[in-house]
Specification:
Length: 316
């Protein structure tokens, strides 16, 4: 037998299944005692390490997904902000057809201001009553847009679950027919199935709207970049003659519940035609001195800082 044949036969003998056996600890050894596998301890350590790595990867993926959802929601709200502010700023140039004969100049200016605010209420409705109620100022006619909203509402009103978000969608798309084309299908939904769509965030929750949010001020921890609450330095642009000395610029609030799905904004109903800035609409709910009108979590705390809104976006 040649040396080559002898070497081949010797190696085949080592590899033959009859010469492989399992020793203690689960290790696999061949006939000469050399180890051919792993112990149970080594396998457990390997599985543990793989589990840790998988957890880290899952956490990183989830974090990336959340950041992507936040970015997508910000983009949707930024588009809505642009559309809403174009309409909001147009009221500074809006002609108001109302009879002011027999009034003094200050009275006429104040009447015009109140009428202008009332037109804004009807053309940028926030609640169902803003849609159904006629003019609050004597002698003011209901705008054509308001008539169109009322006709749609009377054909079948939205459910009470998300009617604020649904009325918001209605007036944005009806007042600006080109606005709908700016939004992808994933930015619009009907979360409660009542036939009234809403703009939705990346978590599938409706995006809410407040026409006036007097409680959303820096002093209240709202972290707003768009309104100061100062009627001297930042007076209401609809009141160029400052006939309402306490009025300041109030930018509409467009907000998402954010990752936790909780709308941490205190909302109280009510509209005063003489002073729409009255009340506490739009206060964050997690302030120590803020009384809540809606029940919160069991621990009694709510965090509005995860809400995504246009007052904290670089959209100006």
């Amino acid at each position: 037998m040649s040396n080559v044949e002898r070497a081949v036969r010797t190696r085949w003998t080592y590899l033959h299944p009859r010469n492989i056996w399992f020793g203690r600890g689960g290790s696999t050894r061949n006939g000469d005692g050399h180890r051919r596998g792993f112990t149970l301890t080594e396998l457990l350590i390997t599985v543990t390490i793989l589990g840790i790595l998988a957890g880290l990867i899952f956490t990183a993926i989830n974090t990336a997904r959340q950041k992507a959802r936040v970015a997508r929601t910000k983009a949707t709200i930024a588009k809505l902000h642009t559309i809403v502010m174009e309409r909001y700023e147009s009221y500074a140039r809006r002609r108001v057809s109302i009879n002011t004969s027999g009034m003094t100049l200050p009275q006429a200016r104040l009447t015009r201001l109140r009428a202008l605010r009332d037109i804004m209420r009807m053309e940028m409705p926030y609640t169902p009553t803003d849609v159904t109620d006629g003019p609050k100022v004597s002698g003011l006619a209901r705008p054509a847009l308001s008539e169109a909203y009322l006709a749609k509402y009377n054909a079948g009103p939205p459910s009470t679950t998300y009617n604020v978000a649904e009325i918001f969608y209605m007036w944005v798309t009806m007042s600006n027919p080109e606005a709908r084309a700016q939004f992808a299908e994933y930015e619009i939904g009907d979360t409660d199935g009542d036939g009234w769509p809403e703009f939705i965030d990346a978590w599938g929750n409706p995006i809410m709207f407040l026409r006036w949010a007097p409680g959303f001020l820096p002093a209240n921890g709202a972290d707003t970049q768009l309104q100061t609450g100062d009627p001297v330095r930042d007076h209401d642009p609809l009141d160029p003659y400052k006939v309402d000395s306490n009025a300041w610029r109030m930018t509409p609030l467009i907000y998402s519940a954010g990752p936790d799905g909780i709308y941490d904004i205190e909302v109280q109903a009510g509209y005063d035609g003489a002073n729409p800035y009255a009340g506490e609409l739009g206060k964050p709910k997690d302030l120590a001195n803020q009384s809540r009108t809606a029940p919160g979590p069991a621990n009694g705390t709510l965090d509005h800082y995860d809400n995504i809104h246009n007052h904290r976006l670089e959209v100006r």
